[in-house]
Write a structure and sequence with these properties.
The protein is of the alpha/beta class. The protein is built from ten helices and 15 strands. It has two domains: about 150 residues, Rossmann fold (3-Layer(aba) Sandwich), CATH 3.40.50; about 170 residues, 2-Layer Sandwich (Dihydrodipicolinate Reductase, domain 2). Strand 11 and strand 12 form a beta hairpin. InterPro entries: Gfo-Idh-MocA_inositol_DH (IPR050424), Gfo/Idh/MocA-like_OxRdtase_C (IPR004104), Gfo/Idh/MocA-like_OxRdtase_N (IPR000683), MI/DCI_dehydrogenase (IPR023794), NAD(P)-bd_dom_sf (IPR036291).
Length: about 325
Amino acid sequence: MLNIGVIGCGAIGRDHIRRLHDLVPGAEVVACADYFQEAADKVAAQYGIRAYASGEELIAAPEVQAILITSSDDSHAGYVLEGLKHGKYIFCEKPLALNAADCEKIIEAELKHGKRLVQVGFMRRYDRGYAEMKRIIESGELGAPLMIHACHRNVSQGPGFKTEMGITNVAIHELDICRWLLGDEYKSAQVLKVRQSSLSNKGYDNPQIVLLETQNGCRIDVEVQVADGYGYDIQCQVVCEKGTINLPDPYAVVKRANATRSFPILTDWKDRFIEAYDIEMTEWVKSVENGKLTGPSSWDGYVACVAGDALNNSRGKGVFLPVETIEKPELYR
């Protein structure tokens, strides 16, 4: 059994603990920690595990063999670097860090070990719909990809949400999945503020339009709505030379009644990608047991942050900014 310690007992942390405990073979959650001790104590009592007073204590604990980080975004980089000091395998939920500079520190620390120890939680790569889209693109049957049109819509946001988080916390998924689908790297990026929704009255931009150009000349546009008021709606269309590929909507029963035809739209991201999360966590545990990580790497987390930095820096300037990365180390090739 792989003994895992979880840092962060919020919504996604609890969901991953449930998943590891109930569904993932070869995994055992043995410890947890949270900024709010009461949250950690509650989870510990539920699963009969140990609650540590801090993430650092959990990382150093001898019984913890691998670390799952699901804490607040601003704490990710620090916990990853601490985990690397101890040479432990780490799964870090997105984003890897809030900026590219902190990602570079993580890459530097990981390179000293001579092998990959960090995986980033870009779970959409494990979604069957996205996986089939990538298969079709790589088959070449529709010719070269030319454009991607995407939407990322959330019902609402809690207190403390800021405009920049629309990129670092929300669109970060599109920054990874579009690059993965195309097998291409970003060249330039720009974010636009458009007419604002009446639902966006909490001091942050909503909607925003993300624009990207790749090294091969593909164009990507992403509509980012963090408060759409109707559902959790993820859309993606890849336009190729000979046709298009659309991400399927989640399975839903169609109801016909009262002269209408309808089906429900999900409102919770955990439900929309529940299978992808299950596959992702199962594959991570399996790869750790095999001693070779296969999922999204520190480099993938870094590239997404570089693009995110360019997008946030472009706000209000009306121009595309370059997406410039350091040279890619051999470890991530």
